[in-house]
Design brief:
With 343 residues, the chain is of the alpha/beta class. It has two domains: 178 residues, 3-Layer(aba) Sandwich (Rossmann fold), CATH 3.40.50; 135 residues, Rossmann fold (3-Layer(aba) Sandwich), CATH 3.40.50. It has eleven helices and eight strands. A four-stranded parallel β-sheet has the order 2-1-3-4, sandwiched between helices. It has a four-stranded parallel β-sheet with strand order 6-5-7-8, sandwiched between helices. The longest helix is centred in the N-terminal third of the chain and has 26 residues. It is globular, with a radius of gyration of 21 Å. The structure holds the ligand C=CC1=C(C)c2cc3[nH]c(cc4nc(cc5[nH]c(cc1n2)c(C)c5CCC(=O)O)C(CCC(=O)O)=C4C)c(C)c3C=C and fe (ii) ion (FE2) (2 copies). The site of one fe (ii) ion has 3 residues, from helix 10.
Length: 343
Amino acid sequence: MTATDITAPNHPPVKFGKVGVLLVNLGTPDGTDKVSMRRYLKEFLTDRRVIEWSPFFWYPILFGIVLNSRPAKVGKAYATIWNKDLNESYLRTYTRNQAELMAKSLADLPDVRVDWAMRYGQPSIRSKMEELHKDGCERILVFPLYPQYAAATTATVNDEAFKALLKMRWQPALRTAAPYHDDPVYIDALANSITSHLATLDWQPEVVLASFHGIPQSYFDKGDPYYCQCQKTARLLREKLGWPKEKLQVTFQSRFGPEEWLQPYTDKTVEKLAQQGTRRIAVINPGFVSDCLETLEEIAEQAAESFHHNGGEKFTHIPCLNDGADGMKVLETVVRRELRGWV
Ligand SMILES: C=CC1=C(C)c2cc3[nH]c(cc4nc(cc5[nH]c(cc1n2)c(C)c5CCC(=O)O)C(CCC(=O)O)=C4C)c(C)c3C=C
Ligand SMILES: [Fe+2]
Ligand SMILES: [Fe+2]
């Protein structure tokens, strides 16, 4: 269709013919104060893709205990890793940078619009879908920025994108990007980030932990592919580096609540390694596209402290791919692949 196809009298102006790419990450509070933290955690922890317990059981605990105690505690943790220059979390800074850099690298596709959103907090997926649509995007690619698929992350982003279409008369076509846990470009980028980080040190780790965010064991038992995709990423990374299994070990971090989560746990492994005589370790977080609370505070601060406290000597955290050239090459490869047939 071209503008000349609009022949009806008094037809309102419409934009069309564009393709949108929406990069989506998990989310972020607007500030580290209690009110912002509570708002963010409430949106996050009422998502049934994240907490699968029945609301009849969960809400009294959430509203009676968790949302009264956790905002202050987590706010303090966020304050230690806040991007003070821009007064925002690094997850927000990196996600915005990724979208801006992506727009530049797709300059050869003039009909493509790139934007970013957060599943929890601002800018919301709905607001960005509406903006892209108004801007003439008849097709939108939603890219949940998680290399490994989990219902608690990927599926909830996709759900929200589809929900945004519910009230639209003229819906855009919607595509969602597949996980890329075994993409050679991603594995190469991780391998490069390990070797180039280790080359900056005057010591070498005996063990490198590949620490992924955990999920409850029960989600895995119900068929979530996340655990297996994490294991595959680590196997391919080991093969790429030519390392044995003992040198690159998979662990799972960020447990929440009393249930059993995927094991081995990162915090317990760090403690045990130090207690059993390992003196030098490195930790990489291959499942996180950008550094955030879970990498900067839980690993680079807390895990490092625990390692030293238990007798370890050298600890280093390998930064996430963030908005660096290797990481952007990964994201661009996925976007160009998923746009095939549309551009
Ligand atoms: C049952 C609760 C949770 C599940 C399941 C879960 C899965 C999951 N999360 C990420 C990535 C991130 N999580 C982050 C923070 C975070 N995660 C949970 C809970 C669950 N996550 C909470 C309550 C929080 C907030 C902090 C806290 O209260 O401890 C973040 C960091 C966000 C930031 O702004 O820095 C990320 C990223 C993945 C990949 C995942 C499952 C695969
Ligand atoms: Fe999480
Ligand atoms: Fe955490």
